[in-house]
Amino acid sequence: MIHLPLRRHLVGPIRLAFTLLGLPHTVWTSGVRPAVSCPSSYPFPTSKTISAVNTSYCRRSSTMPSSAGPHVKSRCPQYPGSNIKRLSVPDDKVDWTQKWPEYEPVSYTAPSVLNNPAWADPDIGSFSPKFNTVDGGVDRTSFEGSYKVENGKPLNPCGRTGLAGRGLLGRWGPNHAADPIVTRWKVDVKGAKVHHSDSKKPVLQFVSIMRKDCGEWAIPGGMVDPGEQVSLTLQREFSEEALNSLSSSPAERAKTHQRITNLFKSSGFMVYKGYVDDPRNTDNSWMETVAVNFHDDLGNSVSELPLEAGDDAGQVQWVDLDSSFPLYANHSHFLEIVAKERKAHW
């Protein structure tokens, strides 16, 4: 993820819209930079029938299987990108309120984080961050509300993960990201919508990237830079990861920018904001995101642009929305909400 000054001017602020929705809009954190990896005031309407914005992965949502425990992927046995094994945490011991005096997880922070890159915090002890507030240039508030701090370190609001430290995440506490979900209708050679043979509902397609770090398909999102508006992050990440705008010629970049701007200035649907069940999460650092759906209803916007994988993506393509398609972290949950909102097949 390379940062270019020109991208700061792609879109304007949406401070008013985010204020009305209760979203933090002052300063956003930066987070993961290694490979593990809308013009002003447009609205983010939510579904009248789906409480998308209030969905939290700290609480079991109605769209999750009843057998699913809290933040399952955040307790994966082996921490990604390492040989570090997590301490196994049973479902009934995840919540911090459950007494577990024997709980002593290994502490791990990746060397790439300990090298003190610009997107990462120093280690606790060498500085004293102000948690649950905007701390200088870093927003350390959580969508999940106020989180506890113990021995100077924040505690994951969704509970134990079996690993202390920061792992691959740059910030102590919440690491904020933004996920643009760009969709279109699947059409036949005559331009008519394709309906699924079972559900009889029209089929949606979304732009998906294959992550280089784990080989899983995902929504092309990324971390919010300090001081960056979420609207800009959404547009920037899609342009860089799905259209490879960083390597385009000036003429191609201008054409792409116009198409993207036209789509991202439309009324996006706020799909989710909150905790992300991410395998990189630890007891002291975790991912949170804002996911917004931008729909190319007529198929004449980004649908006509050639997809090309960017710096964090191995591959990129249009994928049919379907519950059987495996995705990274809790991205399937986001897409299920989109399918229901658009009355499409899932």
TrEMBL record:
GO molecular function annotations of the record: ADP-ribose diphosphatase activity
Cleavable signal peptide: 1-29
Stretches assigned to coiled coil: none
Domain (Nudix hydrolase): residue spans on this chain: 185-341
One Pfam family this sequence matches: NUDT9_N
Enzyme type, top EC level: hydrolase
E.C. designation(s): 3.6.1.13
The reaction(s) this protein catalyses: ADP-D-ribose + H2O = D-ribose 5-phosphate + AMP + 2 H(+)
Xref: InterPro entries: NUDIX_hydrolase-like_dom_sf, NUDIX_hydrolase_dom, NUDT9
Keywords, sorted A to Z: Signal
Summary of the function given for this chain in its UniProt record: Hydrolyzes ADP-ribose (ADPR) to AMP and ribose 5'-phosphate.
Family annotation (PANTHER family): ADP-RIBOSE PYROPHOSPHATASE, MITOCHONDRIAL (PTHR13030:SF8), NUDIX HYDROLASE (PTHR13030)
Family stated for the protein in its record: Belongs to the Nudix hydrolase family. NudF subfamily.
Subunit structure: Monomer. Interacts with GLOD4.
UniProt protein name: ADP-ribose pyrophosphatase, mitochondrial
Organism of derivation: Oreochromis niloticus (Nile tilapia)
